[in-house]
Amino acid sequence: MERGRLGLELRESAALLRAETWLFVGVGLAWLVYGGWVLAMGLLLAQFPGLERTVLATFAGRTVTLRTVLAAGLWLVGPSLATVVLINRRLRNRHGNLADAYRLDHPSLLLAIPGSVLLGCLLLSIILGQPWPLTVVVLLGTVHLVVRTVAYGHRVYTLSVPPLLSLLVFVSAVSLSTGWLVQMDTASGVSSELSPWLTQAGISPVVEIALKLTGVQPSQATPLFIAIPGVLASVYLLFQLLAGTPVRIRAPLSNPQYRPGQRLPIMPPVGGSQNDDESPTAERDVDAAPDSREQTGTGTDTEDDDSDAESPGHTGTRVFSPDEAQAAQPPAHESGQGNAPPSGATTEPETAGDDTGTGTDSETAGTDDTNETTSATEEAWMDDTSVFTPGGRDAGQAYCGECGESLPPDADTCPSCGDPVDG
């Protein structure tokens, strides 16, 4: 059953590729649009010569001017923030929660396709080197891995921090943007018509500072900046796996706090075969409940989530109120009345010769009645102990000090348990 469920969700993960066409098309458009943005902002800054003459610092023998700092902000920080906003809008619904398409019961299956693509590219790069078609596939696979990692991070329970995931997207966008700048500044395949525009835009100072900070050679810079997002995503996944292991060991969670769309960790069964049979269904219901609330558009996500959380176990103690004391043991009471003679009948008193085992039989009857009462109450309460509070009973009525059963006015022994009545 579990294997079939995994296969179904793997197919669902693959089917998401059709809905993620925006991602692959967006990468191609962003590569071109970003080039136009760089040229436009660089040429705009070139219209202010005073920015170039304002020196802010000296780094590795090169002066850092105000124009270089502004260019880095416009080329790296601005587009990266826009990327974070766009990806979050695609992965979240209008309530700010994870989109329904990514809410798999096994979130790790979201990473299967991009992980397999990048692993295949790694093996091919060892055999073939780094041809540009393979670099393009690695670029697409890396971006896809980052997006799926963000969805995975929203879905899991442990180390699910949306600001951290947004930071992952931001750093990845900065790395890829830097790779584009390095490629345009150092690649030999740039057209001669475009080179003067790039020089006038002032790309070289930004690229030189980036290479100095990273300490890599220009020939290795582009593949490195493309690989950085994949490495960061892998590091997050590793730490998430390590952080989630103690949570699964501490199962079950007594009062978990989670967002709509967030999935509780798979817990080992607790309390017998019934829990084994119901645990997948209950786990599915926990995930389904927040989804239905989102579709209704209500604003009570937090309150509903708390109500869906697991309730704490029973305390093991049941307290009876005074009015419930007589109703708590109806079999014993009815048994005592059923054995009493009718009001109009004449009966002779029992003698020792007639019934030599009166005390034993009474105790046995009381034990049987108590067992019947216990088995009846267990079905309704699931608790272990009963605490009786007889203080509120009628003061004129006598009760047995052993079992709490009501006594007739002239009784010498309890009709339920046979205990002698104290004078």
From TrEMBL:
Keyword Transmembrane helix: yes
Biased composition (Low complexity): 345-368
Biased composition (Basic and acidic residues): 281-294
Transmembrane residue ranges: 21-46, 66-87, 108-128, 134-152, 164-182, 224-243
Entry keywords, A to Z: Membrane, Transmembrane, Transmembrane helix
Region (Disordered): 251-423
UniProt protein name: Zinc ribbon domain-containing protein
Taxonomic superkingdom: Archaea
